[in-house]
Amino acid sequence: MKAYNVVTEVRFETEKVYINKTQYFANVPELAWNFYIGGYQPAQKWLKDRKNRTLTYDDISHYRKIIAILIETHKLMQKLDEKT
Questions:
Q1: How many helices (H) and strands (E) does the chain have?
Q2: Of all residues in the chain, what percent are helix, strand and coil, respectively (each to 5)?
Q3: Is the pTM above the cut of 0.85?
């Protein structure tokens, strides 16, 4: 029996964030994966903190929101930098 949505290994590869050997989140820009907030990389830390756990539907939805927020934060920061 296969265990689906279990976080066993976390890695980034060509806009994919793998949570195990076969499952991944697609369309994750490298800038979101490597984005720092206060010394942490939220896209990485959130998954690593859930190693050996099964992600629920709500967990998956939450992680997608994290990625979207990191992308939007990056865009806003670029706009602010343009104005200075």
A1: 3, 3
A2: 45, 15, 40
A3: yes
> What pLDDT is recorded for position 53?
96
* Phi and psi, residue 16, nearest 5°: -125, 135
Query: Between vectors from CA 57 to CA 55 and to CA 59, what angle results, nearest 5°?
Result: 50
DSSP characters over 33-64: HT--BTTB-HHHHHHHTTTTSBPPHHHHHHHH
Q: Which two tokens stand for residue 14?
A: 């060509």
CA-based nearest residue to 48, from 18, 21, 16, 78: 18
Flag whether pLDDT at 3 surpasses 80: no
**21-78 pLDDT tens trace:** 999 999 999 999 999 999 999 999 999 999 999 999 999 999 999 999 999 999 999 9
Containing 17, the helix (H) or strand (E) segment is: strand 16-18
